[in-house]
Amino acid sequence: MKKWQTETLGRLDALVATTKKEFSCADPFPHCVIDDLFDSVLIEELVNEFPIVSDAIWEYSNQEQIQVKLRSNWVTDEDISPAIRTMVHFLNSGVFMKRLSEICGIEKLISDPYYTGGGLNCTRKGGLLDVHVDGNWHHAMGVHRRLNAILYLNKEWKSEWGGQLELWNPEVTRCVKSIEPKANRLIIFETHDNTHPTPLACPDDEARKSLILYYYTALPRPETQIVISKPHRALWRRLQLKELS
User: Fold this and answer.
1) Cα(207)–Cα(70) distance, integer angstroms
2) Residue (of 43, 42, 50) closest to 206 by Cα position
3) What are phi and psi of 2, to 5 degrees?
4) CA-based nearest residue to 65, from 201, 240, 209, 237
5) Span 3-244 CATH architecture
């Protein structure tokens, strides 16, 4: 195990008790925010390796008022640059997921070797992601999606640019909490509603950057967390959720 990985696990172990409490008591649904968990030099490497907008690794989502962003189209590990690949492997490792289980109270977590929906995300000026309920099923593995993890990679992000992660109430009528996308901030939350619905107002040469991974279990989510029981992809507030309300 690399030195930074050992040090990261040590920091995480020291935070487990307080983070577990924060996660279980959080409003509007279980989540936690962990700042500066990783070595700053490592974060700098990830920022430096982040692909440029014109890189072939990106697939572009452009659904007006729903989602306008770039997402990596990883197929194999060879598609991922070295430092980012090392981070992905660590976040998907048993030693890390063991701590996730302790914090979140969800046993037998499964990582995603297919990178379905996960990977790098990049939102440029004018981009957005509408309020939504996350997809609940991994078709290739036949397992239930339970946790999201977002690691932000935005150095010197300014609040007036927007891009905050918004956590909404179950009725999807108001934003309960807004979280800045600052570098070396790790957010872990149960699969529920989340978004940054206001178009970004950052300069043309800036973008909201993050690494997103999902975790699954063989057992389904509790009934209280289920909006629609059958397998589904993201349900958008301006489309499906509005129809369901």
Assistant:
1) 10
2) 50
3) -70, 155
4) 237
5) Sandwich (2.60)
CB 171 within 8 A of CB 27: no
* 82-91 helix and 40-49 helix, angle to the nearest 10 degrees: 120
Which residues lie across from 214 on neighbouring strands? 148
What dihedral angle (degrees, nearest 10) is formed by the CA atoms of 170, 173, 177, 182?
A: 110
What is the phi-psi region of residue 36: left when phi exceeds 0, alpha when psi lies from -120 to 50, beta otherwise?
Answer: left
Task: Determine which helix (DSSP H) or strand (DSSP E) holds 195, and give its type and residue range.
Answer: strand 193-196
Spell out the per-residue pLDDT of the chain, length 245, in tens.
899 999 999 999 999 999 999 999 999 889 999 999 999 999 999 999 999 999 999 998 766 655 668 999 999 999 999 999 999 999 999 999 999 999 999 999 999 999 988 899 999 988 877 665 666 788 899 999 899 999 999 998 999 999 898 888 877 778 899 999 999 999 999 875 454 456 789 999 999 999 999 999 998 877 666 666 666 565 655 544 444 44
Query: Number of helices (H) and strands (E), helices first, in the chain?
Result: 5, 13
Domain ranges across the chain = 3-244
For tokens 């981009």, name the residue: 127
